[in-house]
Design brief:
The protein is an alpha/beta fold. Helices cover 50% and strands 20% of the residues. The protein has ten helices and 13 strands.
């Protein structure tokens, strides 16, 4: 097992050759640089575990190289060892104050050098494991958040998360005196689709309908599965008239789209009914009041023939016919 990759930065050619041989004999993979600038370049390309750097070098010395490494978010986890003939306490403190993880005075016995490098590798491996666990935890948290906020079938937001979003949008609209409209829509005769074709087909209809809804709105709008075959859309910066235009465009798109079914079955067409309401702070004291008004409009659409867009006013419907 390779104990690690070391970048040796040393301007003296003979010292570089001798040190390289020692490190390779100890089992380390070694890359070399003859000065600090080259060392920084190689650090980016090779991503070593440890940098073993001389102090006194042209162009960029050891402490300057260390500062460059430790100030870079990509490189700062590299274990950095300064190696110098300057071995008094002040020099050690100065070296470590640059951010170096270890300071070794020349001449350093081979046994001590290898032991310090092995100790550094243990820290590097622990750090890598910690970063791996952090990344794994972040991914699990992302998945948990996704499960908590999305509908597993359609991958749209679920009802619970949508209510949080709607509350936030209503607060924003109230604070900045902006328009906001709300749409609730329902697939017509969905029970008949399930009874005729089976629930697998019903699920496909829901999935494809969700995709069409998502495709039909702006990035600032929010669509969610409200429950069963019902979907909801919040339209910030939309008046009632603007929301009616959006809903009618979606209704027409759904009507003319053939839903592809599993098992090579012939595609089918479906229609949707829509209820639209515009938020008025003097009328709708809560999100529930706005939803209730849109739901009443949806009921009107269903009662008066389906496949249409209605407002809370019974006369405010647009029919596909």
């Amino acid at each position: 097992m390779n104990p690690g990759k070391i970048l040796l930065v040393e301007d003296d050619q003979l010292s570089r050759m001798i040190m390289t041989r020692k490190l390779k004999n100890a089992g380390f993979e070694v890359v070399v640089a003859e000065h600090g600038e080259k060392g920084l370049e190689i650090a980016y390309s090779e991503e070593p575990d440890i940098i073993l750097s001389d102090w006194m070098m042209p162009r960029l010395d050891g402490p300057q190289l260390c500062q460059a490494i430790k100030s870079d978010s990509k490189l700062r986890y590299i274990f950095f060892i300064l190696l110098s003939a300057r071995g008094n306490t002040t020099d050690r403190v100065d070296g470590l104050s640059t951010g170096a993880d270890e300071y070794l005075a020349k001449p350093c016995p081979d046994e001590e050098l290898i032991a310090r490098l092995q100790a550094g590798m243990r820290l590097v491996n622990l750090q890598k494991e910690l970063l791996r666990l952090q990344a794994e935890l972040a991914e699990k948290n992302r998945i948990l958040e996704q499960l908590a906020t999305t509908d597993p079938l359609t991958t749209l937001y679920n009802r619970r998360h949508f209510m949080d979003v709607l509350d936030g949008e209503l607060s924003r609209a109230a604070r900045y005196q902006r328009q906001l409209s709300f749409v609730i829509c329902d697939i017509d005769n969905f029970k008949k689709i399930n009874d005729t074709y089976g629930h697998q087909v019903g699920d496909q209809v829901l999935i494809q309908t969700a995709a069409l809804l998502q495709k039909s709105i702006r990035s600032t709008d929010v669509v969610a599965r409200y429950g069963g075959e019902e979907f909801v859309i919040v339209l910030p910066e939309h008046t009632l008239q603007g929301a009616l235009v959006v809903a009618e465009r979606i209704r027409a798109s759904i009507e003319r789209t053939l839903m592809l079914l599993p098992d090579a079955s012939p595609p089918i067409s479906v229609t949707m009914s829509f209820g639209v309401a515009e938020w008025h702070p003097a009328i709708h004291s809560t999100a529930d009041h706005l939803i209730r008004e849109a739901d009443d409009a949806l009921y009107t659409a269903k009662r008066t023939g389906k496949n249409r867009v209605c407002t809370a006013m019974t006369a405010g419907c647009e029919n596909a016919a």
